[in-house]
Design goal:
heterodimer, A: alpha/beta, Rossmann fold, 9-stranded mixed beta sheet, 13 helices, 15 strands, 40% helix, B: mainly alpha, 14 helices, globular
Chain lengths: 392, 335
């Protein structure tokens, strides 16, 4: 029975800890990957939240705001539901936020109505999530939203034939479909579509197929991290860059935290995305200063932080509207159509879809005066909605 | 006499004296613990439901590893088969929870037949590698067939009807938890019967000395295959329970990680005793839950430390440790 006693003691300690919070405190439960291979993204969530609270105070209308973090290291819907349920039922949170992976969000949305709790998604980027509950608001992006402008960009730059190469999983297929649709609508032609297994390490056969296809450019989508590094390396080493074959991708591939590892090989890559840490605006400067302080080392700062920062803005607005009372419908209604200037530029919450409408930027990886690589914004596509939600 | 030399296999040997009474007491204990969980932690029922589903995975793994001596790191393939079968059936219109559990069990058993059929062709290390390959193939198949499984986005939109038409699966998770406990107790009781049967004895015999069993005139492979099918049905039931209570099925349910975690739970609790599977799952999940709530950023280190401590201090698992503390010294009973 030794372990049962220990267990009891540990659980007891946990219960005491949660009871100690004061009465007039609004609690917000944030679920994200705070450990494991995606810990950096979770760290960015936390940095965004802390930056927002440092700049806007830790209370709303006299109600203290308390954040409870819960770790979900990888996509795991069952665990996600268990965590959300416990945050709502035991910790009595009034708001749920965070969520990095789509299946995790899908597991939480059926609970929201009964829980009377809105969910503000800081990342999970599949269009369909928004249709699963009227109490979901999203401040990140969708793959279709960030990818679609690339179709026009490609045609404008005289690219007629493109080969797509994406990792064979949900977001990869979404990116492929969105790009093909936009590119062909603009008059281009996708000559071949390659789907690579997620754990591909040797990309030279893929590069050979790209070369053989006689396409003007390759459109790529891979999960950020080592696979992207391998893909970009192969693109350079097999001479595709020298052969003049352009490289197009959504901005996930050149997120700032990966740029040092990509090195000079990334220079000149064209990506489209909703946020670059280098975005030039006073709002972004304030945000980057505060978030860098929160995350410790500025090189780790990347897009999930801005999703979290704006997500907290939405949650604060919800708290103002409900004045500390738990009323999910009123809270969500209060932020429909809300517009503000985010570090990424002007944004608003679409009243129909509850997804964020925002500028998408075309960026090129360049070097600043200090020799550090960054995403240089060269073209702006204003007020983009999520095309993936247009026809549910 | 072989037995003298083989002391490490003692816990796997059948216990004759008072065996039946002890089993009844054990089953009652699990039922009481389940009821206690309901009243002690009414706010964490979703987590506790997850424990019951994973306990079935650990139990199914124990059947194969602990009773047959077949090393596998691919047990989640069977769990996932049950979860996806129940999930797909639910999306296509079967919403009665007990039917979904049955579908999960059948799918798990079918997957067990396939997996056993392949794995039993190899031995030792090759067998282990095969098990990893199979779970990876299942994983990739679930990822590829995204029009049925939702791929990496997960299979969502499961609306499970109320149990017996009365008890809905709601936010508080009472129905799901009680269903989970009842199913777990029933499965446990059935398995106690299975492992004590002549068939169960045969499995243990094969684990100890397959050559001897073969020279006795018994066929080894069909016996093990039968156990694989039973194991698959148990894992599939667990998977279906997870699908019903979560209402989403993700690729993690057919992952190598889940298989490895199940083995860790089993080692923690003690291999070769059905109690060990349940104790291990509870300890692992509770520890993970408590530590990750206290420190969401560095809790994995603590879990690793616990594992090392248990493996060094109690090589037979915590279940084995408890059994040793409970049962008075049996020196002199052995031949």
């Amino acid at each position: 029975m030794v372990e049962k006693k220990l267990l009891g003691a540990a659980l007891g300690a946990l219960l005491l800890g949660t009871v100690a919070a004061s009465a007039d405190t609004i609690k917000v439960g944030i679920i994200g990957p705070f450990s494991g291979p995606f810990a950096l993204q979770g760290k960015n969530f936390q940095a965004g939240v802390e930056a927002f609270m440092a700049l806007n105070g830790k209370s709303v209308k006299g109600h203290d705001v308390e954040i409870i973090y819960r770790d979900l290291p990888a996509a795991n819907p069952a665990q996600s539901r268990a965590l959300a349920q416990e945050l709502v039922v035991k910790d009595k949170v009034q708001y749920l936020g965070g969520v990095y992976f789509t299946p995790d969000a899908m597991a939480i949305t059926p609970l929201l109505k009964q829980a009377n709790t809105p969910l503000v998604i800081f990342n999970a980027a599949t269009s369909a999530i928004m249709n699963t509950s009227p109490l979901v608001v999203r401040t990140s992006f969708t793959t279709a939203q960030t990818t679609t402008p690339l179709g026009k960009v490609a045609v404008d730059r005289g690219i007629k034939k493109v080969i797509t190469a994406v990792s064979d999983y949900g977001p990869g297929v979404d990116a492929e479909v969105a790009f093909k649709k936009a590119f062909e609508a603009a008059g281009g032609q996708v000559v071949e579509a390659i789907r690579m297994p997620l754990n591909t390490n040797d990309f030279s056969p893929i590069m050979q197929r790209v070369r053989d296809s006689k396409a003007d450019a390759v459109f790529a989508f891979l999960p950020s991290g080592p696979t992207t590094l391998g893909f970009v390396k192969a693109y350079n080493e097999t001479g595709l860059r020298q052969a003049g074959i352009k490289f197009l991708a959504p901005g996930d591939l050149t997120q700032e935290s990966d740029l040092p590892a990509l090195g000079d090989g990334a220079l000149g890559l064209l990506t489209s995305f909703h946020y670059a840490v280098a975005h030039d605006s006073p709002e972004n400067k304030t945000f980057v200063d505060a978030a860098s302080k929160a995350i410790g080392s500025p090189e780790q700062l990347s897009f999930p932080a801005v999703g979290a920062y704006d997500g907290m803005n939405v949650i604060y607005k919800m708290m103002e509207a409900t004045d500390g009372k738990q009323d999910a419908e009123k809270a969500v209604a209060a932020v429909k159509g809300l517009s503000w200037t985010s570090p990424r530029g002007p944004v608003s919450i679409d009243p129909e879809t509850r997804h964020v409408t925002q500028n998408i930027y075309l960026r090129e990886v360049a070097k600043d005066s200090a020799g550090k690589a960054y995403n240089k914004e060269i073209e702006t596509f204003a007020n983009q909605k999520d095309p993936g939600l247009a026809a549910p | 006499m072989q037995i003298e030399a083989d002391t490490r296999s003692i816990p796997a040997l059948p216990k004759h004296r008072g065996g039946a009474w002890r089993d009844v007491a054990g089953i009652l204990l699990i039922a009481v613990a389940g009821a206690a969980g309901y009243f002690l932690f009414p706010d964490s029922l979703a987590l506790l439901t997850r424990v019951t589903a994973l306990a079935m995975l650990a139990l199914s793994l124990d059947l194969v590893v602990g009773y047959c001596g077949v090393a596998t790191l691919g047990q989640a393939a069977l769990f996932g088969a049950g979860a996806y079968a129940a999930g797909i059936a639910c999306v296509s219109g079967v919403t009665e929870p007990l039917s979904l559990l049955l579908i999960g069990a059948v799918a798990g058993a079918a997957a067990g037949l396939v997996m056993g059929g392949i794995m039993l062709r190899a031995h030792g290390l090759a067998q282990l590698v095969l098990s990893i390959a199979i779970v990876q193939l299942f994983h990739e198949a679930a990822n590829k067939a995204s029009s049925y499984t939702g791929g990496s986005d997960g299979l969502a939109g499961l609306t499970v009807g109320p149990l017996f038409g009365i008890f809905a699966f709601d936010l508080w998770g009472r129905t799901a938890y009680l269903l989970g406990v009842v199913i777990l107790v029933a499965v446990f009781a059935a398995l106690k019967f299975v492992v004590a049967s002549p068939f169960g004895m045969m499995c243990r015999g094969i684990k100890e000395d397959p050559i001897r069993i073969r020279s006795m005139g018994a066929f080894v492979s069909p016996v093990l295959l039968k156990m694989f099918v039973i194991s698959g049905a148990v894992a599939g039931t667990g998977g279906a329970l997870a699908a019903i209570s979560t209402q989403v099925v993700g690729l993690d349910s057919v992952s190598f990680e889940l298989s490895a975690n199940a083995l860790v739970m089993l080692v923690l609790g003690g291999i070769g005793t059905l109690y060990g599977a349940i104790v291990g799952t509870i300890i692992f999940m509770a520890f993970e839950h408590v530590v990750s709530a206290i420190n969401p950023f560095h809790w994995m280190t603590m879990v690793g430390a616990l594992l090392i401590a248990v493996v060094i201090a109690a090589p037979r698992g915590l279940g084995g440790l408890v059994a040793r503390l409970w049962t008075p010294s049996r020196h002199g009973e052995r031949p």
